[in-house]
Please model this.
Amino acid sequence: MSGRQGDAREPSEAEIWNELGRLDPYWAVLARSRVRLGGWLPRLTSFYTTGVEDVAACMTLTPDADFSQILDYGSGTGRLSFALAPHAELVSCVDLSVTMQDRLRDEATVRQVTNLRFLSPQDPPVPGHTWAISLLTLQHLPGHDGVRDALRYIRDSLVPGGFGVIEVPTATRSVLARVNVTFHPQWRLYRAARRMRIPAPWLIRHGIHGIYFHVLSASALTQLMGELGLTVTARSEGETKHYSFVRYGFVRSTTASP
Ligand SMILES: C[S@@+](CC[C@H](N)C(=O)[O-])C[C@H]1O[C@@H](n2cnc3c(N)ncnc32)[C@H](O)[C@@H]1O
Model:
């Protein structure tokens, strides 16, 4: 774990998300002002209600889909998974972070939700899903290759003709956001500090979380989806204070793609 004192190597993405899953999982999933370091805890009903709203909006983008076997890619603390569970026979929760998955598992026990399954993106995809969703995740995967790997995983998890929805930020709307996606100051500072043996909990407590963030142009993303045999069937646009984002409804081609 990157929180180990005396360990001066570069932290991996999994280690960064494991620290966040351990120390500040809800903020790491939904970074709003004034909810750092446990600020979501007294408002978890609101936190999970945002998932219900997002899932409803995403389902309308793919009205012809079969929602019986769902893949939630980058499931975090289950903000979407718990909203999806009543619609599905099975929801597969895929996350790089085992501590996020532990949090999700504990919450599922409390809620007595039994139709969740936990998968790692580092294992081969399990085929047979009829619908997939990935929100607030692709923007955190460093580089084009990370996004390609995730989309390929999602594609290979889906049955041919299966639908899905992904969301990506496509443009910045503030100077702060432009600095963030151009220079990645958080990501660089966190790594430099870890190399200097500054413990991860100290960094997170002081607002240095190490989360990578990039925007993906709509043209680059749709080209990549096309190369992978994912055909865009619908799109919707939205905005936050700092970013514009697009949600793409898509269908997996019935013919093989690389
Ligand atoms: C900002 S959270 C979003 C969680 C959830 N999708 C939601 O909307 O509530 C991003 C999640 O992606 C996970 N993650 C990061 N890299 C990943 C990867 N390569 N594959 C799968 N999950 C990843 C993180 O551990 C984290 O739980």
About this structure: The first strand starts at residue 69 and ends at 73. Residues 1-6 have pLDDT under 50 and may be disordered. The pocket of S-adenosylmethionine is lined by residues 13, 17, 29, 74-76, 79-80, 94-97, 100, 121, 135-137, 140-141, 150 (CB under 6 Å).
